[in-house]
Amino acid sequence: MTTGAFLLEPSLAERPWGGTRLGDGIGEAWDLSIHPNGPARIRSGTHAGRELAAVVDERPADFGGPIDLLAKRLDCARNLSVQVHPREGDPKTEAWVVLDAEPGAGVYLGFREPVDADEVARRSLDGSVADVLEFVELAVGDAVLVPAGTVHAIGGGLVLFELQQSSDTTYRLFDWGREGRELHLDAGLACADLGPPPARPVAATLDDGATRLVDCPHFWVDRIGRDLTGPEALLDPRSRWVAVHGVAGQATLDGLVLGPGDTAVVPASAGSTALLAGDGFVGLRYGPGVGDEPHRR
Question: How far apart are CA 84 and CA 173, in angstroms?
């Protein structure tokens, strides 16, 4: 029996900067994850109750191979550490889509001007590194691409959807005075880009009316919704898989009900699946970068 579309149950994690949207003190919900540090479970269909990783390992052909991405939500009541992710070994390029934002909230992304490693190390230790970082104010719906090696920090007052390579390697450079968490200056500075921030993604309208928010070699993210794609949107896994995260309203696909905060996966074995959007539905459709652009205008 091939694997059909299914819903996922996230793995929740407390964080020192976590708020209350995902649960008291919960900072992250790993909605689609095969990573051992936070594996998601399948909550519908034939494989209900099993970890997604186990099903992918058992039936890789259904997904066109391994799943090498991780999707999560972050509830950032306070600033996250100033950090960087490696480019090699356990690389992590990530992208954010803003789900909610307090006035003036934003992210630190890259440096205002080129700096050297000695200055970043000194400022990380004396608490002034944020003074040389570029601050980008964000609003609901904004998207940001963070290539591996980019020094960054998510500011407090944001709720984000994040799609990333499946990695949990983070090198902290500065933690806003919080105690008990190790810094990784040598490893972080060895892989850090010490220049200006990367260019922001430019949204594009696709043939089906969706908005392509992020597009990189590792993954892509589209905004879909009744006001964009009409009452029916196509979830086409092609040779791999495609997922959709519910942001607002409700939709149905293959007999499943998708509400706010829910994640549904359509593996290659299920084939193209229609998502029927109810009034007010908004979702994020995403998948692995497979080198083709079937919907772009």
Answer: 8
Give percent of the chain with pLDDT exceeding 70.
Answer: 97
| Inter-residue contact 266 to 235 (CB < 8 Å) | yes
Q: Is pLDDT at 73 greater than 50 in this prediction?
A: yes
H or E, element range at 124: helix 117-126
Q: Is 293 a residue whose pLDDT tops 90?
A: no
- Cα–Cα distance, 58 to 62 (Å, whole number): 9
Q: Shortest CA distance to 43 belongs to which of 259, 224, 287, 250?
A: 259
Q: Are 277 and 231 in contact (CB under 8 A)?
A: yes
Which helix (H) or strand (E) is 188 found in, with range?
helix 185-191
CA–CA separation, 11 and 16 (whole Å): 17
Residue 162: burial class (beta carbons within 10 Å; 0-12, 13-18, 19+):
buried
Query: Do the Cβ atoms of 64 and 132 come closer than 8 Å?
Result: no
> What mean pLDDT is predicted for residues 39-43?
98
pLDDT of residue 290: 63
Q: Which domains does the chain have, with CATH numbers?
A: 6-191 (2.60.120.10), 204-288 (2.60.120.10)
Q: Which residue numbers are catalytic?
A: 172
Residue 94 is labelled as binding a ligand? yes
> Residue 225: enclosing H or E segment and its boundaries?
strand 219-225
95-140 pLDDT tens trace: 999 999 999 999 999 999 999 999 999 999 999 999 999 999 999 9
pLDDT of residue 2: 76
